[in-house]
Design a protein that fits this description.
The structure is a homodimer. By secondary structure, the first copy, chain A, is of the alpha+beta class. Chain A folds into 2 domains: 29-141, 60s Ribosomal Protein L30, Chain: A (2-Layer Sandwich), CATH 3.30.1330.10; 156-308, Alpha-Beta Complex (Phosphoribosyl-aminoimidazole Synthetase, Chain A, domain 2). In chain A, 36% of the residues lie in helices and 25% in strands. Chain A contains 10 helices and 12 strands. In chain A, strands 7-9-6-10-8-11-12 form a 7-stranded mixed beta sheet, with helices on both faces. A 5-stranded mixed beta sheet of chain A has the order 1-2-5-3-4, with helices on one face. In chain A, α3 links the parallel β3 and β4 (118-126). In chain A, α2 (61-78) runs parallel beside α3 (98-115). The longest helix of chain A has 18 residues, at 61-78. The interface between A and B is large, with 74 and 74 residues.
Chain lengths: 318, 318
């Protein structure tokens, strides 16, 4: 009999999607679901974090709360929606000190405040390990929503910020390398809400998702859902300051940290080339072209070399 | 240093509410939160269930899924909203058979379908025990929403169905007593969505909540939030068929099962007396007067005896 460990996270998700018959405007399979409310979509995303799967040792309680909220808002950002609220359910061990819970809760609230969303409510139950399950809600005009599908031949491919920071932070934590900025990036991800709203409002973005599971995986998703190929130029990818140093010290490849690790929570978008300069200005420079939409295959261009892009991402359960 | 076990569930919730500064239309402290969308409220509720806190042994996987969805929709019902969707996040052990997950997921979907809601999406992560965290969404006209506050002197107090069934089911399971209907009521709670919508539309209901934690606790909540007292007549409370027999066999008091156990998920409402006959008709008889709003204290009338009503409910963590 097959277990979840045998089939891995993507297999689990596929099994869950299999017999869902959603008629929602945007159903399972995108960053968030969207419900038609007339002139707007209500965008809904749920993300659960547990000690066992998600939270590096050394994370403070406040960071656990921030993280659990931030990963949800990142999905709202990916659709270009304005966050309106969040609910947060806690499973908590009986022996947890009350002060720890207050710090976790403060982290949740500070993240809500940072993105202008209301903490609407929650639930608490007892369990053997800490689990935080958040649901974020947002609103976006129907004709402005950004989806994973829609990229077109000739579009530019761009990201909203440097990549590999979270991976470098994780590596630094594991190997005892000094890289406080990267570690902070790992433990306190910043949902790109403002960027998402500006990108959506522009009307020039043809597809978007956040880079939760690494750039390569996100490229693969946009490619698959849009039915087009991506050409990514290695030298154009903006990378975090510590990444090269941490990669060298830890003797891991920089490409692995930047392409395949995840945890960066920047947005990956495709857009009409003629809108790039204006949008980059509106985003205060936070838009970096890394390639273009072309053909049917996903490739990485390194100097003169063109290699197929391995779009597998990080998988839980396995 | 105080732990969650020291202060109990209500203390945990109080601590979480303490530094929340919600400006939502209906904030934390009611069955669900409500967000102002113009002419309607978006009603949002989250409920998490874990093996350790909630799920009796012997529950099938399908029932786990149904239960996790149903308790969320019950909060939507309590506000009189029409369910529009649900997201469900799963924490699952790696060794869980895939077939078990499929059955859990089927239970979630069947419950969504039963109340006319869309399963919008979800999330899965690995953890040491099964945790299901659902968030249900509903819509209700702003002038029709039912809240825990609003009960007025002279209102009738009523419930939508027999009480004590879930308690009898739990007792039967624990003591090996034959009571399949009660056990089914415990394991497959029915959210009173249709009843909630009819009650809300009537405009005659002044306060409402579901009876998750027992009738006595719900009475205490409506009383506290409305600033009025409740007189409940013991002989008027409709009770499940097995309750008396199970109580006798198990040598527990029928009052404990009916008043203090919970898990029934019927709705408790206060309403204008002149609307009762019409509403009872619209509900096909599923409305039973159990007392009235009077004075400032909560009392239980048993024959000639009038005793204070102990409004404590079941608490996790302790």
């Amino acid at each position: 009999m097959k277990t979840l460990g045998d089939i891995g996270e993507k297999g689990v998700i596929a099994a869950l999607l299999e017999n869902m018959s959603s008629t929602a405007a945007v159903g399972p399979g995108d960053d968030a679901a969207a419900v038609d409310l007339g002139s707007q979509y209500l965008v809904v995303s749920t993300d659960v974090v547990s000690r066992a799967s998600h939270l590096p040792k050394g994370m403070t309680e406040w960071q656990i709360g921030w993280f659990a909220a931030a990963v949800n808002f990142s999905d709202i950002a990916a659709m270009g929606a304005r966050p309106i609220g969040m609910v947060m359910a806690y499973v908590l061990p009986r022996c947890l000190p009350l002060e720890d819970l207050k710090r976790i809760s403060q982290g949740v609230q500070d993240c809500c405040r940072a993105v202008g969303a209301e903490l609407l409510g929650g639930d608490t139950k007892e369990g053997s390990e800490i689990v935080l399950s958040g649901t974020a809600l947002g609103l976006v005009d129907k004709d402005k929503i950004m989806l994973r599908r829609g990229a077109r031949e000739g579009d530019l491919v761009a990201v909203t910020g440097p990549l590999g920071l979270a991976a470098a932070g994780y590596t630094a934590l594991m190997k005892g390398i000094y890289a406080p900025r990267s570690i902070k990036a790992l433990l306190e991800p910043q949902p790109r809400i403002a960027e998402g709203m500006i990108l959506a409002r522009s009307g020039a973005v043809t597809s978007c998702m956040d880079i939760t599971d690494g750039l390569a995986f996100s490229i693969g998703e946009l490619s698959k859902q849009s039915g087009v190929g991506f050409e990514v130029r290695w030298c154009s990818i903006p990378r975090g300051e510590d990444v090269e140093r941490v990669a060298t010290k830890a003797e891991v490849s920089e490409e692995a940290l930047i392409m395949h690790f995840g945890g960066d929570y920047e947005l990956l978008v495709t857009l009409a080339p003629d809108a790039y300069d204006r949008l980059r200005g509106e985003l205060g420079g936070r838009l970096h072209v890394i390639g273009r939409v072309a053909g049917k295959e996903n490739v990485l261009i390194r100097g003169d070399e063109v290699v197929p892009l391995d779009t597998r991402g990080y998988e839980h359960f396995r």
